[in-house]
Design goal:
314 residues; alpha/beta; Rossmann fold; UDP-galactose 4-epimerase, domain 1; 2 domains; 3-stranded mixed beta sheet; 9 helices; globular
C-alpha cells in the first residue's frame, strides 16, 4: 500500500510517516517548497517527498497522478491558533485553497482520504455540555477555527455530492516531540531548556494559565488517523480526543518538576490570546466504538519526551 501524506514534514505528518512505515506502507508526502524537513531526519531515506504548494491550481492533481497513492492523509496547512488573528488572510487562503485543490484532484483520482480538522471548530461550549460530541453545532472562535470549519464544508460537499471517499477527523490538542513554537507545550519546554543552559533570566513567561485542554500525545493521535481512514464511513466526522482535560497551570507545574533548576513563572500580556476558550474537551466514543482506539502514552511521558526533545534542539 502506498500512502500520501500532505504536510509530511510537519509535526503530526512526520509521526504519521513513521507509523505508516511501521505498518509496512510505502510513504510519499508533499513538502512546501523551501520548507525544512528536519522532522523527517529519522526516516528521510525511507520516504519520498515532493515539493508542492497545494494552493496552486492543479498541483494536488499532478501529485496524485504522478504518485498514484492508495490513501491520502491531508495534514498540510496553517495550524497555529494563537497567530491566526494577525495572519487571518494567509490562514484562510492556505487552508481553504489547499483543501479545495486536493478535493478537485481527488475528483479525478478518487481514493480514500482523511481530512484533519480541529476540535477548535466547536468554540465556547458550557462545561456542563463537555466532553463535546460530534453532534455539537460549530461556533468557531478564531480565524484558524473558521478555516477548519470551512475545510469540513468543502470535504462534506465533495463526499455527498461528488461521491468522494472522504473521512473527517476533528483532532483535539495533541502534543509531543518535534512540535513547533506557537503551541503552549513547546513554548514552555523551549524556555525551560534555554534557562537550563544559562541563556537569560530564570523566568518562564506564560499566557493564560487557567484554560483547560484535552491533550493527546501525537503518537496516539496519528494512530487514530490511521485507524479512521481504514474503517471510517465516508462523509462522516469523528472526534479524536482523550476525553480528559488539564489546565495550562498543571502543564507548567509538570514541566517544572523535570526542570534542572528553580524557575519563576511570570504571566506576560503578549502571550495572552485575544480570545481563549476556557475549556475544550472532546468525546471520542464514536472513534472508540469503531476502532477500539485508546490513548496509550501518559501525560507525564509526554512531558518528559517534549522537554528532552527541546533540550536536544536548543
Amino acid at each position: 500500500m502506498k500512502v500520501l501524506i500532505t504536510g509530511i514534514a510537519g509535526f503530526a505528518g512526520s509521526h504519521l510517516a513513521e507509523l505508516a512505515l511501521r505498518e509496512g506502507a510505502e510513504v510519499v508526502g508533499t513538502v512546501l517548497p523551501g520548507a525544512p524537513t528536519d522532522n523527517l531526519a529519522a526516516v528521510q531515506k525511507d520516504v519520498t517527498t515532493v515539493a508542492c504548494d497545494l494552493t496552486e491550481p492543479g498541483a494536488a492533481g499532478n501529485v496524485l497522478r504522478a504518485m498514484r497513492p492508495d490513501r491520502v492523509f491531508h495534514l498540510a496547512g496553517a495550524s497555529v491558533v494563537g497567530t491566526s488573528w494577525a495572519l487571518r488572510a494567509d490562514v484562510l487562503r492556505t487552508n481553504l485553497e489547499a483543501t479545495y485543490q486536493l478535493c478537485e484532484g481527488l475528483r479525478r483520482h478518487p481514493i480514500p482520504c482523511l481530512v484533519v480538522s480541529s476540535g477548535e471548530v466547536y468554540g465556547v461550549v458550557p462545561e456542563s455540555e463537555q466532553p463535546i460530541p460530534e453532534t455539537r453545532r460549530w461556533a468557531p472562535g478564531s480565524p484558524y477555527a473558521l478555516s477548519k470549519a470551512s475545510q469540513e464544508l468543502y470535504a462534506g460537499y465533495y463526499a455527498r455530492s461528488e461521491g468522494l471517499p472522504l473521512v473527517i477527523v476533528r483532532a483535539f490538542n495533541h502534543v509531543g516531540p518535534r512540535q513547533g513554537l506557537g503551541f503552549v507545550w513547546s513554548d514552555i519546554a523551549r524556555q525551560i531548556a534555554e534557562i537550563e543552559r544559562g541563556r537569560g533570566p530564570t523566568i518562564l513567561e506564560v499566557g493564560t494559565t487557567t484554560t483547560q485542554r484535552d491533550f493527546t500525545d501525537v503518537r496516539d493521535m496519528v494512530r487514530a488517523y490511521w485507524l479512521l481512514l481504514a474503517r471510517g464511513d465516508p462523509g462522516r466526522t469523528y472526534n479524536a480526543a482523550s476525553g480528559q482535560a488539564v489546565s495550562i497551570r498543571e502543564v507548567i507545574n509538570g514541566f517544572l518538576e523535570y526542570a534542572a533548576r528553580p524557575i519563576e513563572v511570570r504571566q506576560v500580556a503578549e502571550r495572552v490570546r485575544p480570545i481563549d476558550l476556557p475549556l475544550l474537551m472532546g468525546d471520542a466514543s464514536r472513534l472508540r466504538a469503531l476502532t477500539g482506539w485508546e490513548p496509550t502514552i501518559s501525560f507525564r511521558q509526554s512531558l518528559e519526551d517534549v522537554l528532552d526533545d527541546w533540550r536536544r534542539r536548543v
